[in-house]
Amino acid sequence: EKIEESACSIFCIQETKRSNFDHSYIKKLAPKRFNKFAFSPSDGASGGILIGWISSIFSGEVLQINKFSVTVQFSSAHNGQIWKLTTVYGPCHGPERDVFVQWLNNLQIEVDNWMILGDFNFYRSLSDRNKGGGNMNDTMIFNEIISNLGLMEIPLKGRKFTWSNMQNEPLLEQIDWVFTSV
Hints:
By secondary structure, the chain is an alpha+beta fold. The chain is built from four helices and nine strands. The protein has helices at about 1-5, 25-30, 95-105, 135-150, and strands at about 10-15, 35-40, 50-55, 60-65, 70-75, 80-90, 115-120, 150-155, 175-180. It has a six-stranded mixed beta sheet with strand order 4-5-6-7-9-8. The protein has a three-stranded antiparallel beta sheet with strand order 1-3-2, with no helix packed on it. The termini are far apart. About 25% of the residues are buried.
């Protein structure tokens, strides 16, 4: 319902907690006009990423799928413009988080039209948390990655957080951060 309501041409879902997707499942999840998809499977009950798109609007070429991300190069059917989209889901803690940070730091962004979005499981400042506390070191790590990659944050409109775990909140967990290359 949220995909339909948004009238989007591309959707990205992080932390799917699914090891596999097929066309029959996608047809249940998304409107019929979404006829292409790429996914990274979950690791047990953690992770998993799904990108779906409408091929009559964007042709997509899957460039990379790994444990933390899915990258697709899109070409607009309208004007031929080419751009890349990377959707990420970062581990919350442990050795996998360190591998994720290293992977992010080593990204080679060679084009200007590249959008990176997802659930990084980091925050830019302690005030970005929906509750008190937080780890200042995590904040510094995330901001250093953003700076090293030369990314620019695309600000949210209309709300502070893109997600909520509060009862009776209609918004599903969605994207925590959206960045683009500059």
